[in-house]
Structure formats: structure tokens, C-alpha cells
Specification:
The complex is a heterodimer. Chain A is mainly alpha-helical. Chain A has one domain (86-357). Helix content of chain A is 79%, strand content 0%. Chain A contains 17 helices and no strands. In chain A, helix 1 (2-39) packs across helix 15, helix 2 (55-72) runs parallel beside helix 15 (294-317) and helix 9 packs antiparallel against helix 10 (213-223). The model of chain B has no long low-confidence stretch (mean pLDDT 89). Chain B is mainly α. The longest helix of chain B is centred in the middle third of the chain and has 17 residues, at 5-21. Chain B has one domain. Chain B is built from one helix and no strands. Helix content of chain B is 53%, strand content 0%. In chain B, 22% of the residues are buried. The chains are: A mainly alpha, B mainly alpha. The interface between A and B is medium-sized, with 31 and 22 residues.
């Protein structure tokens, strides 16, 4: 009897943890929205506009505070199942598609594919080379290089599967991605504002430079509506390359590192392809063909903001820095140097592509 | 059966869109 009851009890505990965790996320999202409304029109010191303190920042800060509180009172692990950054983010991105004309996606995707290929290749190999110079393990630098060159957390997980990385290497890189992306989410729009960057170029820059999709959307949201759309398109185009990189990594590790004769299947390209991108495209087609009218459109836009807000709260909630102490600071130095390289290269490339080769107009 | 998170996100998003299109979710209710 006891053995039969144990899994049932664990399952109901999981459900309770999920529901309580979800409730915490929702309450924090409401609080973030309230804070945004209070500060939006305010004049801040050092000439920082109230708009720079958009909801992504409040949501992430509240998430970080709650993260600390929940760990302090020892209930973090119980409520963690309710923290679903990726799920909320993907829902928000599909809803975002319902407000973007397909023509814009086609126009921006041309530049985004070119930018994605340049950025992913250059940043991946620079990170791989630098990690080697610093003596990092092959599996760690493979996960790091994929995370920094493609899209942070989900790319790190995809790469880890290909190179059989250790669990702590994934946790470590995930923490590094979030720790770097959170400040960049606020700093990048401020720099773009100081440089008077047009929104499409700024969006392309955020999409190419900020490491995780949630922070890319956050930076775009802070800078403006057009920047949010272009940043999301650029990032999703880059995300679509995950499968290709995961396949090539699996091939390299299997053949070169492990010396095996069998080759990994190219099916991994589809397996790792972010399927929500298809939802984003279909939603955009519905909008383009007029199937989404003004009123439902504004409800969908509002739900998109809610989904993103929930994702930003979870981003703060999911940060874990435990692995930093265990793995030392060498990878941090490599990661920061590569992030700087990524930022500067993305600035030049996005200006060249979106300002000159494929000027996107909305 | 465990559903892939990407597809789950697509299903939820389209369900929300459908509810907005048929008028079940009004813009005022979800105002951000």
C-alpha cells in the first residue's frame, strides 16, 4: 500500500508546487505592471527616461527578490515547477506574430538570416578559440559557444545534448547567460538611445547581441514597438539555427573527439528546430490576411505583454549562481570577453545589414 | 504522453487568440 501511495503523493505535491509557483509568478507580474505604471512618466536622475524602467526590468527584479526569499525560507524547490520562462516566452512570441505583417517578417528575415549566419559563425568560433586558450573543457566551451552565439539557455541545452555535457555545465552556463543578459536588457536600449539608433537597427542589434530570447524581447520592449518586433524576428531566425549547430556539434564530438565511426542523424536538425516559430509565422499570416480585426487584435497584444511579463518574472526566479563557486571564474572571464566581442560585432553587422542592405520598414 | 513545450506554447497561444477573436476575451479584461 505504501509503495502505491508514494508516487501518487509525489504527483499531488508536484501539482500543488506547480499551482503555488504559478500563483507567485502571476502576483509578481501584476506587481511589475503596477510598478511600471507608477514610474513610466517620472523624470529620473542622470536623464534616464522613465520608459527605460519598462515592465521587463521590474518583472526581472521582482523575480530575483522572490528567488532569494523562496530560497531563504526553503520552499524554492517545491514551487519551482510553476516557473516556466520558456513556455511563457514562446506563448508571447506566437501572440506577437499576430500583430506583425508577413511582409515585415519576409523583409526582416532576409537580413536576419544573413546577420544570423555571420554572427553565429563568428561568435561561436571566437568563443571556441578563446575557451581553448583559457583551457576550458571541450564540452563546456561547446555549450558556452552555442549559448553565446545563438540564444542562451535553450541553445545551451540543445548543445549539451549533442556533446553530452555534464548537468552542472549546463546550469553554470544558464546562470552566466541570465546574469549577463539582465543588465544588457537595460543597458543596450540606453546605448541605442544615446546613439540615436533607428528602431529597426536597434532591434536587429538586440536580436544579434543579447544572449537569451527573453532579454532580447525585454530590450526591444524598452526601446519601442518596432524594435520589439524586429528584435523578435532576428532572434527567432537565429534560434532556427539551433538544430544545424546541434547537428554539427554532435557530428564533431562523435567523429573527432570520441573517434566513433557512426554518424549522428540529420534528423536532429528538425528535432531541435524551435517549433513555436511555425506558430509565430501562422499567426502573422492570420493577421496579414485580415482574420484578426482591431478589437481582438488589441486583446491579443495585451495578452502578449502579459505572457512576456510572466516570462521576465520567471527569468529572475530561475537564476541560480551555486555553480559559480564550484567551477571558478575562468569561464566567466571568457564569457564576458566573448559577450563584448558579440556586442560590438552585432552593432556593426546590424547597422550594415538593417541600415543599408535590408532596411526594414514597418 | 508528454507534450513538447514548443507545441504546448503554440496550442495555448492559438486558444487565446481564438477566444479573443470570438469575443470571449475582451481587450478591457486583459489590459496591460
Amino acid at each position: 500500500m505504501t509503495t502505491a501511495k508514494a508516487p501518487a503523493k509525489a504527483q499531488s505535491n508536484n501539482l500543488a508546487g506547480f499551482l503555488i509557483g504559478l500563483a507567485i509568478v502571476v502576483v509578481l507580474a501584476f506587481l511589475a505592471r503596477w510598478l511600471k505604471i507608477q514610474v513610466y512618466g517620472a523624470k529620473l536622475p542622470l536623464g534616464i527616461p522613465g520608459r527605460a524602467l519598462e515592465y521587463p526590468l521590474w518583472a526581472a527584479i521582482l523575480g530575483l527578490i522572490a528567488n532569494w526569499v523562496l530560497k531563504t525560507v526553503n520552499i524554492y524547490d517545491f514551487v519551482k515547477p510553476g516557473f516556466r520562462t520558456e513556455l511563457f516566452l514562446k506563448i508571447g512570441l506566437v501572440l506577437l506574430g499576430a500583430g506583425i505583417s508577413f511582409k515585415v517578417i519576409i523583409t526582416a528575415a532576409g537580413g536576419a538570416i544573413l546577420q544570423g549566419i555571420i554572427m553565429v559563425t563568428a561568435v561561436f568560433f571566437f568563443s571556441w578559440w578563446l575557451g581553448g586558450k583559457f583551457g576550458l573543457a571541450d564540452s563546456l566551451r561547446a555549450v558556452m559557444s552555442t549559448a553565446v552565439s545563438i540564444c542562451g539557455v535553450s541553445a545551451a541545452i540543445a548543445a549539451a545534448g549533442s556533446v553530452l555535457a555534464k548537468k552542472e555545465e549546463i546550469t553554470y552556463i544558464t546562470a552566466l547567460v541570465i546574469v549577463t543578459a539582465l543588465p544588457l536588457m537595460v543597458i543596450a536600449p540606453l546605448i541605442a538611445g544615446a546613439l540615436n539608433m533607428p528602431e529597426p537597427i536597434a532591434g536587429a542589434w538586440f536580436g544579434g547581441n543579447v544572449d537569451t530570447t527573453a532579454a532580447v524581447v525585454g530590450a526591444g520592449t524598452i526601446y519601442g514597438e518596432t524594435a520589439q518586433k524586429i528584435a523578435s524576428i532576428v532572434k527567432q531566425t537565429q534560434n532556427a539555427l539551433i538544430g544545424v549547430v546541434a547537428f554539427l556539434l554532435a557530428l564533431y564530438f562523435s567523429v573527432v573527439v570520441e573517434g566513433k565511426k557512426e554518424r549522428p542523424s540529420a534528423g536532429v536538425i528538425w528535432q531541435r528546430f524551435p517549433k513555436f516559430v511555425l506558430g509565430f509565422i501562422v499567426a502573422s499570416l492570420l493577421f496579414t490576411f485580415g482574420l484578426i480585426a482591431k478589437d481582438p487584435g488589441s486583446a491579443i497584444a495585451a495578452m502578449k505583454d502579459w505572457a512576456f511579463c510572466l516570462a521576465f518574472v520567471c527569468m529572475g526566479l530561475e537564476l541560480s549562481v551555486v555553480q559559480f563557486k564550484k567551477m571558478g571564474w575562468k569561464p566567466v572571464i571568457v564569457y564576458l570577453i566573448v559577450t563584448l566581442f558579440n556586442t560590438l560585432l552585432a552593432l556593426a553587422v546590424s547597422w550594415l545589414i538593417f541600415g543599408w542592405l535590408f532596411p526594414a520598414s514597418l | 504522453m508528454k507534450i513538447n513545450e514548443d507545441w504546448l506554447a503554440v496550442i495555448i497561444a492559438f486558444a487565446l487568440m481564438l477566444l479573443a477573436i470570438v469575443g470571449v476575451i475582451a481587450p478591457a479584461w486583459v489590459k496591460f
